[in-house]
């Protein structure tokens, strides 16, 4: 019988939740790396026992942990090995003055689709790094930060973070990344050169609402079978692109609010997407105290609230940008974690929800692996 | 042997107890002690001082013999009591909440 393994990063360690394919009973292991912030844990798509974890601390810096047995044991692959290429230069600070690039932490780890020893890291201050030796050493892909707009990038409230890395399953040279608050960028030559792909985004919070860069993109999702279709949760607005980011159209439709952080795509229906609306950028909790996942079966615009099993009163948690994941069983499972420490699971594509755990530290990220 | 006391987070990272004993070549200084510590526990590289600049991380402090040695030059001799192993060299995470 198949099984799933849910990898949860929290403010005070990592947790691993396992269940058989029924996804009704959960074993919880952890905390791994207790007391450290774990921004992200993710497994290799071709070797599911190979996991990488971003373990970080304001005191002691950045550690990348690696497991070769599905998270039963871990070894530190290296500490604080992220050094910007060349002379780092400056980006813009919150007040508009030039500010030197300073490495702070790894937000997102994206293992290669073809080699378990190759992994990409999206970091703050925004840059993309790659390791080809299972996270022991890291090299920056400097073409991204060298984009002509780089010196104008400005942090969002969470910092100048590169939080989304999408690898195109049909084109090894194509990669899409997103930075708060610079926007989305695409490479078609394996990271040597990059183009801003923000046409169609409108952001009222910047001087030129449809500027080429400067947009606070919160997350982007892609379905493996249709990599040219992209779905974006921007600071405000849910967006869709049908041409690998060349242009974007708003698909917020009838959402109660189009602010939010997460967005993801159904495992078997590439036009079915999920978001969790959050009231506003100054009130990071669900509207009306009701935690609702919204699902669109039409690739946006028409949304239905999914509430069965989710708290519908007095709920004031947030769901952060990397804290939703979808397994590939049929029906697919949908998972998300909250800043209140709950990890909610739906084993039927969102129709009904249960809490796999309720009292973890604030959840920073959720990934899921579907195991044979 | 020089005795070094690590903060909790670095003990779990290095998988050691509260204190480690180090054989330090030459005179005992912050630099020689940290060099020996990182050689014996490579996973600690970069967690106490910056890997490139060798500067102490801002929220890490060095105490010994009831003195704050954090801002002493890295090549200054450590107190004799530390060099002879009678007192430990303490690596401390600066106090902060959360």
Automatic annotation (TrEMBL), chain A:
<dbReference type="Pfam" id="PF02012">
    <property type="entry name" value="BNR"/>
</dbReference>
<dbReference type="InterPro" id="IPR015943">
    <property type="entry name" value="WD40/YVTN_repeat-like_dom_sf"/>
</dbReference>
<protein>
    <submittedName>
        <fullName>Exo-alpha-sialidase</fullName>
    </submittedName>
</protein>
<dbReference type="GO" id="GO:0010411">
    <property type="term" value="P:xyloglucan metabolic process"/>
</dbReference>
<dbReference type="InterPro" id="IPR052025">
    <property type="entry name" value="Xyloglucanase_GH74"/>
</dbReference>
<dbReference type="InterPro" id="IPR002860">
    <property type="entry name" value="BNR_rpt"/>
</dbReference>
TrEMBL record, chain B:
<dbReference type="InterPro" id="IPR012675">
    <property type="entry name" value="Beta-grasp_dom_sf"/>
</dbReference>
<protein>
    <submittedName>
        <fullName>MoaD/ThiS family protein</fullName>
    </submittedName>
</protein>
